[in-house]
Each structure stands twice: as structure tokens, then as C-alpha cells.
Design goal:
Elements: E1 12-15, E2 34-39, E3 57-63, E4 75-76, E5 87-88, E6 101-114, E7 117-123, E8 131-138, H1 141-144, E9 163-165, H2 167-176, H3 185-194, H4 200-203, E10 211-215, E11 218-225, E12 228-236
Parallel strand pairs: 9-12
Antiparallel strand pairs: 1-2, 1-8, 2-7, 3-6, 3-8, 4-5, 6-7, 10-11, 11-12
Bound molecules: S-adenosylmethionine.
Domain TsaA-like: 8-148
Keywords: S-adenosyl-L-methionine
InterPro entries: TrmO-like_N, TrmO_C, UPF0066_cons_site, YaeB-like, YaeB-like_sf, YaeB_N_sf
């Protein structure tokens, strides 16, 4: 049964520091990433967000637009289970799902004009830069928070690993973190790498690989050293 043919459209686009899927936290609220939800016409009238600042958090409903072409399957192998065990797609938060819809709770900081566009300033999202947002709703604590709920395979937040830095990376971060261009760069890098974004099967064995995550306009190069994520250097992303 087709329900929404030609009626669902993007109401906004999310601008985030995450320029590739690798490295994005697997749920919201895990990393203090800052970004903007830019409202698109005809939804960019200030009336559409009148009253929204009374809420500290929002639900963003969005489209996993980068994965739509790959379709979906009945079962997926969640990274939480080491990538070995199959679970039903509806028992997971997999990005490969019928309709490709995701939902995340994010913190709302402000409603601002950015480059002339009406934007919601947010943090804590787990969304790729450019993600189309199909709806925005206030988070309502009395109803949306269920403190005694069972969390299945995801009862606790993922275990974090330590992060260390080369001298070069430390001085680069100090220099590049200045100004408004890359808010929270140092804590963003630390938060992203502490999630250990490596594929589950890599974590089980000795791992000499050089990894790279793209944050803002920077490629962050890192490896695993003494069981920590060790930041080696930062380079401007090649365009
Ligand atoms: N909190 C959401 C949910 O439960 O529906 C998303 C969870 S999903 C496991 C989070 C992952 O989605 C991120 O780690 C990233 O790899 C991926 N992702 C984020 N934005 C995406 C997009 N626009 N297209 C495809 N994948 C995306």
C-alpha cells in the first residue's frame, strides 16, 4: 500500500561537521557536535518555529539519503553485536530500512539567521552533512523519556576508548580551533574517536591500519596505539 507518494518532502537540510559516514556516532547525544538545521521554503517562515525555543530538545525525522539506493533486507548485522549476529531490521536502528527514515533527539540552542537563512542551532546530532530533514518536533520529557525501558542490545551507551595525540596534532588542533568556523573542534575530535568508529571485526585483532575521519573541512588521520585512538595529524580535505 503506497501512503505518501509525492507528499513527503524535505522541510530542512542539516548542516553538520560530519562529511563522511565513517566516524559519525551511532546515536545522537554521544558527541558534542554542533550544527544547523536550515529551514527550506516554504517552511522557512519564522511562524513555523514560533514557540519552539520553549523546548531544550527536538526530534529530527530525516532521510538516510546516502543509503537509499542500497535498499534494505529483512535482517542486519548490528555493529553492537560485533557484526556477527543477525537481527530483524525492525529490531535495530539500521540505516538500511524500508522508507529510509531515521529519527534523532538533538539539543536546541537557538533560532538564528545564518547567511540569511532561517536556521535552528543544534548539537549532539548523528547526521551526515546535507541530510534532508522531513519533520521537526519538540521533545516532550514526560512522554518521550521512559527511564525503566528495556534497551535490548543497546541498554548502555557504547564503551569509549582513550584518545592520545602527537605533538604535531596538538598544535594543529590549537591553531585550527580558533574562530567560529569549526566550533568545538578539539572536543569533537576527542568525542568522535572515543567512540572507536572502526568496524567491529577490526577491533577483535591487532590493527596496524591508518584511519581517517572527515570533520568540517579537515581530514583527521589516526591509528590505534596502546589501545587508544592516537591522532597523528590533520590535513585540509582535498576537493
Ligand atoms: N538516531 C538515528 C536513528 O536511530 O534512526 C540514526 C541511527 S543510525 C545507526 C546513525 C548512523 O547513520 C551514523 O553513524 C551514520 O553512519 C549514518 N548516517 C547519518 N546520516 C546519514 C545519511 N544522511 N545517510 C546515510 N547514513 C547516514
Amino acid at each position: 500500500m503506497t501512503i505518501f507518494e509525492n507528499t513527503i518532502r524535505a522541510v530542512a537540510i542539516c548542516h553538520t561537521p560530519y562529511r563522511q559516514k565513517f566516524g559519525i556516532p551511532r546515536q545522537p547525544g554521544l558527541v558534542d557536535a554542533h550544527g544547523f538545521v536550515e529551514l527550506l521554503p516554504p517552511f522557512n517562515d519564522p511562524d513555523t518555529v514560533r514557540g519552539l525555543l520553549q523546548y531544550s530538545h527536538l526530534w529530527l525525522l530525516f532521510c538516510f539519503h546516502e543509503n537509499l539506493a542500497q535498499g534494505w533486507k529483512n535482517t542486519v548485522r548490528p555493529p553492537r553485536l560485533g557484526g556477527n549476529e543477525k537481527m530483524g531490521v525492525f529490531a535495530t536502528r539500521s540505516t538500511f530500512r524500508p522508507n529510509g527514515i531515521g529519527q534523532s533527539v538533538v539539543r536546541l540552542h537557538d533560532i538564528v539567521r545564518r547567511k540569511g537563512k532561517l536556521c535552528l542551532e543544534i548539537s549532539g546530532m548523528d547526521l551526515l552533512d546535507g541530510t534532508p530533514v522531513i519533520d521537526i518536533k519538540p521533545y516532550i520529557p514526560f512522554s518521550d523519556s521512559v527511564p525503566d525501558a528495556l534497551g535490548g542490545m543497546a541498554q548502555e551507551a557504547p564503551v569509549q576508548i582513550g584518545v592520545s595525540y602527537s605533538d604535531e596534532a596538538l598544535s594543529q588542533i590549537a591553531a585550527l580551533a580558533k574562530g567560529d568556523e569549526r566550533p568545538n573542534l578539539a572536543s569533537l575530535i576527542e568525542g568522535v574517536l572515543a567512540q572507536d568508529p572502526r568496524p567491529a571485526y577490526k577491533k577483535a585483532k591487532d590493527d596496524p591500519k591508518l584511519y581517517q575521519v572527515a570533520l568540517y573541512d579537515l581530514d583527521i588521520f589516526w591509528c590505534i596505539k596502546d589501545d587508544k585512538a592516537h591522532v597523528l595529524e590533520l590535513k585540509p580535505t582535498k576537493v
